[in-house]
Write a structure and sequence with these properties.
Blueprint (H helix, E strand, L loop, with lengths): L2 H5 L5 E6 L2 E13 L8 E8 L8 E7 L2 E13 L2 E8 L1
Antiparallel strand pairs: 1-2, 1-4, 2-3, 3-6, 4-5, 5-6
Amino acid sequence: MTAADFEQAIGQAFTIETGSGQIALELSAVNRIASSPRPGGGFSLLFRGPRETALPQATYRLAGNGVVHDIFIVPVAADAAGRLYEAVFN
């Protein structure tokens, strides 16, 4: 996976399965990591989810934009608009 794989999907929803049903996470941002040793470059993804559902850090299967990815996400913030989660590829 590369940053370019996700940059076209900013603003789109990805669905994840949890024990209590499906939750939609919107891809909010793709941030490139210039100093990454990762082949093709590192990047992070920021997702926004609903305020009323708090997901613990874990690997989730995200489906959206015609693809399915198993991605480790970490909660990083919450505000009136929802909760933010980050996935880092470094």
